Amino acid sequence: MTRSRRTARFASLVLTAGLLVVACGGDSDESSGTTSGNGTTNDTTATSGDPAAEKQVVSVAYNSTGSFPEPDATLKAAETAFEAANPGVDVELISITASDDDYHTKMQLQLQAGDDVADVMYFSPNWVDADAAAGYLAPLDDALAAWPDWEAQFPEAVRSGSVSADGSTYMVPWSSNDIGIWYNKDVFKKAGLPVPWEPKSWEDLTAAAEAIKANVPDAIPMHLYAGKASGITDAILKTFQPLMYGTDDVLYDTATSKWQPAEKGFLDAMTFISDSYSAELTAPTQDVLNAQIWSYIGPWMKDTQLGFVLDGNWMSFAWLPGGQYEWPEWSDVLGITAIPTQSGGAAGKVTMGLRGPGLVRAAKSDSPELAQKFIEFAVGVEHSLSFSVNSSQLAVRNDVAAMPEYTDRPTVGDFTALLQYAHYIPLTEQNGKVEVLLAGIIEDVALGKKSPEEAVAKYNDEMPATVGAEHYAG
């Protein structure tokens, strides 16, 4: 399919169906070479060099949010470099401006249609298992086994964490992330709180928020994500799970491969959320329910309007040079500390390890070998470094993690140190459905529409149908 035919078909589908459908890759033969770890090609060019020959096309779809630099910046750099290294190849970037959930919905519509899909897609790890089980994604095991970088540069924890429930790997990750507490030292000093701050229990979190409310009335004491509008995973990964995994309970038992019923730890986490919101220690409801709440944290911190927030290592992107809320002093004013367990305990600290986004290949790609070649090029050392630095995310490649351009940045060491306390939710086909159920429950508890006890009952009542009785231990 030539570019002109593909463009015409794209326009026709948009006009007739009202759906955003991305273009498919080219139909010509793929190159069979390999890519080295530094992002340079070792093979011959993709075509015979005849300028009259039709170019091979590899299409790459990704989500662009506008204010966030990635993956837009790195994919554009990879496009230019890949085309320069492979004459006769055209990388067609398809940028879709949408929320994560809407972007995934658009990708699923294309994958279900099956005849007009992007060759490569930027994907969240939470989407992989279900889409792989549906036959939408190509397993990458054979290709990765032949790629030296996979074993040499990606730690075993990263490789094993990328394996789906069926035993295959479908996504090459670009980064990793975890959750900690960002706090404003100036707000803490005004509130009479210690700096540096190392909370030992949930009681310490509440006490700090109460001190800020009493002594710094112009500041929001703390922010706990609880609304669905900004994306269903915010309230789960940044608030509920770090709290619950600080108890003795878990959501999913890896030994039995079963989802666990809500018990005391679940109830206690919901109670902490409920108590914090009812005591007005959190952001106003109208902000919590705003789809753009994540974008408020940067200016709130910069303007001394927020005491602390449970959020990810990537938050600093807003304050970096060229960021939306550029703030040269951010690393001096803000502190990082670990989320405490409920009562201290032996470990005393907890975080949720978040598998970062990465690149997948469509099962019905027209150019599978060229698509794989682009994936390996884009996650090579040069572009992986770019992605980690631009997005303030943690590196997954050993070589990148040792580079001064990566290690010399503020907070990188703090968040990397938290990974030793990380819990990971397994990638299962049921994750998405469980997230939808949990997100609704968390929002209802925060808004006072459900008591913590009612939240437990709803979760336990609906889980058998949500994940299937065979996957539930209740």
- What is the arithmetic mean of pLDDT? 87
Q: Main beta sheet: strand number and arrangement?
A: 7 strands, mixed
Percent strand: 5-15%
Count of individual helical segments: 21
Structure overview:
The strands form three sheets. Strands 5, 6, 9, 10, 11, 12 and 14 form a seven-stranded mixed sheet that branches. This protein has a five-stranded mixed sheet with strand order 2-1-3-13-4, sandwiched between helices. It has a two-stranded antiparallel sheet with strand order 7-8. The radius of gyration is 23 Å and the shape is globular. α2 (72-85) runs antiparallel to α16, α10 (232-244) crosses α11 (264-278) and α20 runs antiparallel to α21 (452-467). The chain contains 21 helices and 14 strands. Helix content is 43%, strand content 14%. With 474 residues, it is of the alpha/beta class.
Blueprint (SSEs and pairs):
Elements: H1 3-17, E1 56-63, H2 72-85, E2 89-96, H3 100-113, E3 120-123, H4 125-133, H5 141-145, H6 148-153, H7 156-161, E4 171-173, E5 176-184, H8 185-190, H9 202-215, E6 220-223, H10 232-244, E7 252-253, E8 258-259, H11 264-278, H12 285-288, H13 293-302, E9 306-312, H14 330-333, E10 334-337, E11 339-340, E12 349-355, E13 358-361, H15 368-378, H16 381-391, H17 398-401, H18 404-407, H19 412-418, E14 422-423, H20 431-446, H21 452-467
